[in-house]
Amino acid sequence: MSEFRKINACAKRPVDIWTNYLYYPFSLRLVYLIRNTRVTPNALTLGSLLLALVGCLFYARGDRAAIVTGLILVQVSYVLDCADGQLARYRQQYSPIGGWLDQVADRVKEFALYFSLAWGYVRVHPEGGRIWPWAMVALFALYLLEYLGQIEMFRVKGRVLQVNENGVPVEAEPAPGADDAFQKMRRWRALVPFRGFIIGEQYFAQLVFLAFGWVYSFFVFVSVLGLLMAVYRPLVQFIKHRHATANPPQPS
């Protein structure tokens, strides 16, 4: 197996289609280039945070050119954010401080990005103070989604794991004869553009809306979709739990 294929196998999947097809092609190649250097996963995390904060300085200016410049920096920061975990898994460099740093950096970036965007919008549109409530709701929704993503609301007792050819633990395949319709639904759901509004979908939404200068609409979109997903995601977890208990996986 080539080194690039090994790195690709270390990418966290399944993920949203935007991360998989838009951001991973860059992050995987970055990891390939630095795989034999002294660059550490934590250095990539800090680099991602620094790039995002610099992008926020441009967001805070509020004019179109500054927003586009900030957008480019923020999008590159997400590529680094993807690469830090891929590099850690490729080198087997796991550490409690690394996981903590990654989580803290993500939360700092979220607050800085949305605050600076709102600040810049009001700076250019003095009458646009109505954006602040939307900014608060958007941040609340994102933090709530992150919390939902960190917990398992419905644990399946005796969940079976198996190790794939790259030594990575994965869930076992469903039992033979399991509900084919359910599996097909899961595969089709993976192609939905915003199926859970996880982090890659959030960055892609930012890319689309801000590229056209739709700052206010972006906050409304994140607020509404984020709150809807805060209801939808636990519901999906419950359905998966019911299906998993009815069709337990079999070890290979």
UniProtKB/TrEMBL annotation:
Keywords assigned: Membrane, Transferase, Transmembrane, Transmembrane helix
Q: Does the keyword Transferase apply?
A: yes
Q: What one GO molecular function would you report for this record?
A: phosphotransferase activity, for other substituted phosphate groups
What biological process terms from GO does the record include? phospholipid biosynthetic process
A single Gene Ontology CC term: membrane
What InterPro entries does its record include? CDP-OH_P_trans (IPR000462), CDP-OH_PTrfase_TM_dom (IPR043130), CDP_ALCOHOL_P_TRANSF_CS (IPR048254)
Q: Which PROSITE patterns match?
A: CDP_ALCOHOL_P_TRANSF
Q: Does the keyword Zinc-finger apply?
A: no
Give the residue spans that cross the bilayer: 39-60, 131-149, 188-205, 211-232
For this chain, the family text in UniProt reads: Belongs to the CDP-alcohol phosphatidyltransferase class-I family.
Q: What is this protein called?
A: CDP-alcohol phosphatidyltransferase
Q: Which organism is it from?
A: Alicyclobacillus macrosporangiidus
